[in-house]
Amino acid sequence: MLIKILKRLAQGGLYSNKLMARELGMDEGVVEQMITQLQNLGYIEKDDEEKCSSGCDCGSSKKDSCCGKTDIGVKIWNITEKGKKAISV
Which residues form the Transcriptional regulator HTH-type FeoC domain (predicted)? Predict the structure, then answer.
């Protein structure tokens, strides 16, 4: 199941853990745990860029000032080389 989640993350685009859980037929909490496990195993890493990504086009470079909104809860994951190798098998 970890590989399925890794492949889904590699597709890019916006998603939520809830949507991914629905797509994969599992509980949202399990998806969150597996994403944490993928990070701990070095298959994914959290992007340190915290840009406005809500589509508001406000031009802000920081998520906490995006159109006056705070804590929009966006996480951006990058697939590491290790992760890329795992999904290419």
Answer: 5-63
